Amino acid sequence: MKKPTLFLSFIALFIITSCGSSKKAAKVDPYIGAWNMLIEDTPQGNVSATMTILKNDAGEYSGTLNSDLGLINLKDVKIIESKISASFITQDMDFDLTGTFQEMMFKGFVSGMGYDFKADGKKVLDQ
To answer: Looking at the record's lineage, which domain of life comes first (predicted)?
Structure first.
């Protein structure tokens, strides 16, 4: 009587442990995706833009800014401890983008031409 109980206990233990997922849940990078932004008080007035951040298999970030000025590629995109730094060229002028991600919000600056333009945004939720 003891052997069948022991055998059934092992089978039950095997079934319980096999039901759990052996795969670890992939951690979602909170920075990847689209961010609606407003860049304030530029010479063109307030500029609405969408910043899109991507990450390749090597873990390197890239991105774009899409606004009335067109699609602009971000260069040297670095995100370390919720802080972003990148650069871009538009209308033959160099600009830097810096800021901090705070959950679903972005607060930062676009700097160029000797000025810092406030750039705030919010992550676009996938529908």
So the answer is: Bacteria
Nearest-angstrom CA–CA distance, 32 and 52: 7
E strand residue ranges, the chain: 33-42, 45-55, 61-67, 70-80, 83-90, 93-102, 105-112, 115-123
Q: In CATH, what number is assigned to the domain containing residue 85? A: 2.40.128.120
**How far is residue 122 from each of residues 9, 43, 98, 103, 115, measured CA to CA in Å?**
53, 23, 15, 9, 23
| Better pLDDT: 4 or 101 | 101
Q: Contact, 71 vs 64, CB < 8 A?
A: yes
**Domain interval for residue 110:** 33-123
Q: What is the pLDDT of residue 88?
A: 96
Number of domains in the chain: 1
Which pTM does this prediction carry?
A: 0.77
Instruction: Express each pLDDT in 28-53 by its tens digit.
Output: 899 999 999 999 999 889 999 999 99
